[in-house]
Amino acid sequence: MIVVMWRNFVQPSGVVGEVEAVKANVISLHDGVVAELHVDLLQYVTNGQVIGTIIGTDPDILKATIATIEADLKVLQARMRLDERRNEQSLQQLHWDLLNERLARDLAVSQIKVASNKMARAQLLFDGRLESQEVLDIAQAEFDKLQTEIKVRAQTIADREAALKQFGDANDAAGDPAIRDAIKAKEDELKLTLQPVDVKAPMSGFISAIAHRGQERVVRGESIVTISGTTAERIVGYIRQPVQVMPTEKDTVVVHTRSMKRQMGEGQILKVGAQYEPINPALISTASNRVEMGLPILVSLPKGMNVSPGEFVDLSIRYAKR
Question: What is the pLDDT of residues 276-296, one digit of tens each?
């Protein structure tokens, strides 16, 4: 009989457990100061309820930062106006250069007519043997020079006209109101970033711990309050060593409470751990420095059992037939 009982049951002291306590830490998403905390210890909160307000920095620093941003934007706008004036001057200089090129081209066109006539006379005189070859070559060289100059200046005028058009388009874009709107949008974005942020509860439950209160500085990722659930659905159990039989999800567990009015119910193993984990010393002994390793299992809470999250229970496994 003893052998049969040992194979099919584990004594309650051999398997201990704790009703799973679901907790959520409400953390700060950025560095700042807790402006207000609207909750108190053990107060019940609902999911999405505003529990506090955090500002990115102190109000005085916030005002100074906004003033600095506005000053930088004003300096940027002043530089833009200065750049616009410089662009206008450069645009005027381009116009003057273009006019000079056109004037020089027109002058060369008028001169080439004279050079053409001069070259024609030199050719006639050369044919009549009244002028030398040298005079004809000089007239031809002057004509070719003016013709080349006209072509080069025509190309220069075309390039300057294209550059003038591109420069004018770029200057119009620099003064486009869209840029000023973008600057204004950036200013609004910075103001929104520095505005107070409401911190909301991620779940329903009660405030089990408060790490920071009003006017305290917090660091990004630091917990402000801890919210604990009021109900539980699972039990985290530990099988103490030595483990004679490895449990499976087919096995059932008998749950015994440690309260004065003991309750008993039957649950199902939901999961079995892959390695041994430290057991809470309070589950097995009054010695707080005692460390013992156990195989963790996850057990469903028996229906109708009235327990609180974090409550200690004793477990006994009822193995299914192998």
Answer: 999 988 888 766 677 889 999
Which amino acid belongs to residue 223? Answer: S
How confident is the model over 111-139, as pLDDT tens digits? 888 888 888 888 888 777 766 788 778 88
How is residue 42 annotated by DSSP? T
Report the alpha-carbon distance of residue 199 to residue 14 in Å, rounded: 44
User: 56 — phi, psi (to 5°)?
Assistant: -65, -25
Cα dihedral sign for 146, 149, 154, 157?
negative
Fill in the amino acid letter for 259.
S
User: Which residue pairs from 280-287 have beta carbons closer than 8 angstroms and sit at least 24 positions apart in sequence?
Assistant: 280/18, 282/312, 283/16, 283/17, 283/18, 283/238, 283/312, 284/16, 284/240
Q: For residue 223, what are the contacts with CB-CB under 8 A and spacing of at least 6?
A: 25, 26, 27, 211, 212
